[in-house]
From TrEMBL:
Belongs to the NDK family. ATP binds at K11, F59, R87, T93, R104, N114. It is found in: Cytoplasm. This is Nucleoside diphosphate kinase. Keywords: ATP-binding, Cytoplasm, Kinase, Magnesium, Metal-binding, Nucleotide metabolism, Nucleotide-binding, Phosphoprotein, Transferase. Residues 3-140 form the Nucleoside diphosphate kinase-like domain. The active site is at H117. SUPFAM superfamilies: Nucleoside diphosphate kinase, NDK. Pfam families: NDK. It is an enzyme of class 2 (transferase). It comes from Henriciella pelagia. The lineage of its organism: Bacteria, Pseudomonadati, Pseudomonadota, Alphaproteobacteria, Hyphomonadales. Its EC number is 2.7.4.6. InterPro entries: NDK-like_dom (IPR034907), NDK-like_dom_sf (IPR036850), Nucleoside_diP_kinase (IPR001564), Nucleoside_diP_kinase_AS (IPR023005). Homotetramer.
Length: 140
């Protein structure tokens, strides 16, 4: 199996409830390594650029408001098939549909305030990592 990297965000609903460590424990228990991590307050420009693919969606404004409402933790995760492995451990976007033991089932409040983001492909992971990390800040 291939060792991959993926990009993760611990969202404001989780940092607000002091859940960074609890989310990281689930990530590490799933066999993923946190090889880059920074706590930041996203600017509107950063959030709008990050979610550009969703800009025509009705929830875009709400999404940008939420992602800039408090601190987030941006992360680079590494492991076997990391993109899919992290999506599996995050669970479904809507927490009411997320499987038991997943981060969203454990912690998410709603489809919007759903605690974590993870890249949907290896190609997007590389783009998303490059938006928030320089190579010197990733130590595998
Ligand atoms: P994320 O993986 O960060 O990618 C896009 C985000 O849009 C998604 O997680 C959700 O948090 C958010 N989202 C998706 N659907 C809705 C919705 N119907 N209402 C509000 N936010 C949504």
């Amino acid at each position: 199996m291939a060792i991959q990297r993926t990009f993760s965000i611990i969202k404001p609903d989780a940092t607000e409830r002091n859940l960074t460590g609890a989310v990281n424990a689930v990530i590490e228990k799933a066999g993923l390594r946190i090889i880059g991590q920074r706590r930041i307050k996203m600017t509107r420009e950063q959030a709008e650029r990050f979610y550009d693919v969703h800009k025509e969606r009705p929830f875009f404004g709400e999404l940008v408001d939420f992602m800039t409402s408090g601190p987030v933790v941006v992360q680079v995760l590494e492991g076997e098939n990391a993109v899919k492995a992290y999506r599996d451990v995050m669970g479904a976007t809507n927490p009411t549909e997320a499987a038991d033991g997943t981060i969203r089932k454990l912690f998410a409040k709603s489809i919007g305030e759903n605690s974590v983001h993870g890249s949907d492909s290896e190609e997007n992971a590389a783009i998303e990592i490059a938006q928030f990390f320089s190579l010197a800040d990733i130590v595998g």
